[in-house]
Amino acid sequence: MVVVKESPGALGLTEGDLIEMYYKVVLSRALSARMWILNRMGRAPFAITGDGHEVAQVASAFNLKPGKDWVVPYYRDQGVVLTVGMTPRDMMLGLLAKAADPSSGGRQMPSHFGHAGLRIVTGSSPVATQIPHAVGIALASKLRGEKDATIVYFGDGATSKGDFHEGLNFAGVHRLPVVFFCENNGYAISVPLKKQMAIAQVSQRAVGYGFPGVTVDGNDPLAVYAASKEALERARAGEGPTLIEAVVQRLVPHSSDDDQRRYRSQEEIEAGKLADPIPRFKAYLEAQGLLTAEQNEEINKRAAKEVDDATDFAEKSPYPEPGDALTRVYGSEG
Amino acid sequence: MAVNVVMPQLGETITEGTITRWLKKVGDWVGKYEPVVEVNTDKVDVEVPSPEAGYLREIRVSEGMTVAVGEVLAVLEEAEAGEKKEAVAVAAPEGAAEPAGRARATPRVRKFARDHGVDLERVSGSGPGGRITEEDVQAYLSAWQPPRAAPAAPETVGPEQEVEILPVTPVRRTIAQRMAQSAFSAPHAWLSMEADVSALVRLRDGMKEEFRRREGVDLTYVPFVIKAATEALREHPILNSAWSEEGIVLKKRIHIGVAVGVEEGLVVPVIRDADQLSISGLTHAVQKLTDRARAGRLALEDVQGGTFTVNNTGAFGSQVSMPIINPGQAAIVSMEAVVKKPVVVGDAIAIRHMLNLCLSFDHRVLDGSSAGGFLQAMKKRLEAMGPDMSLY
Amino acid sequence: MATKTVIEALRDALHEEMQRDQRVLVMGEDVEEGGVFRATEGLLGDFGPGRIIDTPLAESMIVGVAIGAALNGMRPVAEIQFADFIHPAMDQIVSEAARMRYRSNGAFSCPMVIRAPSGGGIHGALYHSQNVEALFAHVPGLKVVAPSTPYDVAGLLKAAIRDDDPVLFFEHKKTYRSIKGEVPEEDYVVPIGKANVVRQGKDLSIFTYGLAVHQCLEAAEALAQEVSVEVVDLRTLAPLDKEAILESVRKTGKALIVHEDNLTGGIGGEVAAIIAEEAFDYLDGPILRLAMPDVPAVPYSPPLEEYCLLNPEKITAAIRKLAGY
């Protein structure tokens, strides 16, 4: 486990940056809370969120150049896409499957993010299929001599898939400018880590593919930011891929169709809540004198307002036309 | 006469029985009182005798089935002993078994018969298994004789005796049906324009000898009008269409129907992709189709698929006519007789050859302005045809 | 005009497209040394390792990485060494490539070609002889082509590379060296979605593709005095050229579908359904299919292989049967 001792300044982060990161984390959590409420009210058939992953997501994505670097997220990565530039309205439009949903026009389940202008690549439900895509994107960037990097996110379960191994292998052979970012929350739905792999850390896999792997505390924004910064700089410099493993907590069930009390004890769930990264981040900022009570209050209010606005907007937004189901099959007929 | 073999009451309290074995099969001769079938009840097993002599025509209950007393087990056709007919045709011929009561003909042949107003029940089949082929229907059509009108029994003297009913051929019947269908379903509107074809007349007069010599067929005004029509259709494609409930069906290719009068009535063979033919090509195409039509040798594909029709009413001297649109199309144009008449040119009177073009159109698809635009385009082209035009 | 074999036409067309469009990439196993069938011979020398890329042995990754490259502005031509090996890539082809445009509501698209030699008759047995086109023709979002002449192979490859959607390009490996034909020097494409009437006829229509086209032509010639057979080379299996199929049936009234792929669930069923639904009134006989029997694949031993595969004699027998209806 790498522990970062560098100060924010040494990493190139300003106070404003840290507050911005914190806000994004708070916003992501607030959006998630609203999504679960709408789901339990019967207004959104499905919800899948990244509670507990937000700090790792926001801190890593903070390094990216939106619209230039390629971002290949998975379904828990709301924190990533908010940081790159998608909006709370975009999230809610996706949740409620409205026509204006930028990810898919209401065609995909919620949290299947995509945004062409921000180079956030559309994803599917089968796990890890996005990894070879990220590798191919990085290949094209390298062949054209571009300095853009690609980052692909996935969970611990995905690292068992063939696509993970095949993708990392290709990236290693061709020294591609891609960062593999694993958000290890210790569960693939109900399957715990020790049934998923025979090794202790996902990052150990990197050596098999010929490039560095590093494990960081996913709850430590500076550690995550530092590790991602270094990996992206390596990529841009033509030094090849990196595998980053951020250890996080999953504070919610896998999705709204899962009841994690069936396989996680109450003690474990409570312990998880204690390890919630948001209070820890808040405490850090307060200790550094960067966050007063009023500022915190203001941040929470601002986030709540954005969530209300997004919900309202999405609820009023129209559904797609039924006949739209027939469009976009092929390019020639739009 | 048909006779039923029923489940007998085999004991006082018996209400039903089970067929164990049929002793005769369909088509077999059965003598009176001869056992036909073995039946089992919970009291007895019996052989059921036939009530009459005859041929077993139908078995209604199969082995193993249980039925109530009185139910019909089989049907016999009464017949005298010795009247043994060979091969009672009950089995379907080898090939697909046809549902009872249906004429045996493939979908293609059924459509052909339908299009020509032929009742397949009246046609005998020469194909495998007695199937009716297209040739059989053709043969029926050519051999069709109008039934001799039975002399009306003169029971009453009166106006009825002053009419004569002309029997109608299947073709005439079909024509009548399609005319009515078109007239009553498509709201017909009508537009007419005059074209000054003096230059075209000069062209034709100048070329007709040489053309006859070179091509072996007469050069008429028909191919020129068809060419003007196809070019005008390119400019106004909405006329090359048809009404449908889903929307206006725009046809991408131009297949011109040319109305030809034959003995039995009017047929409209189709020149496919007429826009790709030259004047000479069109002349030959029209001639070929006309010859085939008059000889009664038009094939199904010759009369199908037309997208627009040209009608040469001028051939019998008409000057103005209101043609009826062919079903499946949106418009039809008549070319009337070319007539020499005095017209105003500038501010003076001149003698010109004039040709009336009469367009009937489906008002669901077209309105006056698009129809007018089309006809204007035809007129313009006809008026531009002259001695320096190539026929090839 | 030049006379070329199918493989020569393929290679030359690939070369031309790579020259014409810098975005065209070739990737697959053994492509750098020319490919096991020599489809990519000489390309490395002409275009360098930046555009002809040997991949590790992993079909899912070949397709997945090609998808990524296509997302980022390239036009990859991925080679799967034998169609029999395409199955690991099924997820990437069906769940990902086929759905990229639809699931992103048009924001992303996947202009790529996946090429694979398919078909039997070269003693390849179960794992070098498969015909897999029906599996993919069933998936909306994919285009599937199966050309069988040098002219069509070159023209359709160009069309496939220029197409903005994922195209599966199945070459029948037996045609590689055995079928020769004229290929124009100048640039041309054969449009995807258009069949070709390779032989005109009046009495009976055969709908076919791949090596079977040539076998059907041979059979039709042999019966030329008895039956006037029209042979329609479908060329594209998805989308099928419905209009060409229906036009031929309207003319002849009799339809025979011939394909080397297994009978059940093969393209023949789809063509037959289209004809039955939309040309019913023109049918003068049942729609027949002639295909490989429903066995898991072509066996190795010569009598077994011969029993299973098509040949002109089996086709003439089927023609006679339908013509006599």
Short description:
The complex is a heterotrimer of chains A (334), B (392) and C (325). Chain B is of the alpha+beta class.
What can you see in these coordinates?
The complex is a heterotrimer of chains A (334), B (392) and C (325). In chain A, β4 and β5 form a beta hairpin. A 5-stranded parallel β-sheet of chain A has the order 1-2-3-7-6, sandwiched between helices. In chain A, strands 4-5 form a two-stranded antiparallel sheet. With 334 residues, chain A is an alpha/beta fold. Chain A contains 12 helices and 7 strands. In chain A, α2 packs across α4, α3 runs parallel beside α9 and α6 packs parallel to α7. The radius of gyration of chain A is 19 Å and the shape is globular. Chain B has 392 residues and is of the alpha+beta class. Chain B has 3 domains: 77 residues, RNA polymerase II/Efflux pump adaptor protein, barrel-sandwich hybrid domain (OB fold (Dihydrolipoamide Acetyltransferase, E2P), Beta Barrel); 37 residues, Dihydrolipoamide Transferase (Irregular), CATH 4.10.320.10; 198 residues, Chloramphenicol Acetyltransferase, CATH 3.30.559. Chain B is built from 7 helices and 18 strands. In chain B, the strands form 5 sheets. Chain B has a 6-stranded mixed β-sheet with strand order 9-18-17-16-12-15. A 4-stranded antiparallel β-sheet of chain B has the order 1-8-6-3, with no helix packed on it. Chain B starts with a strand and ends in an 8-residue tail after the last helix. With 325 residues, chain C is of the alpha/beta class. Chain C has a 7-stranded mixed β-sheet with strand order 3-2-4-5-7-6-12, sandwiched between helices. Chain C has a 5-stranded mixed β-sheet with strand order 9-11-10-13-14, sandwiched between helices. In chain C, α11 links the parallel β13 and β14. The model of chain C has no long low-confidence stretch (mean pLDDT 96). At the A-C interface, α6 and α7 of A face α3, α4 and α5 of C.
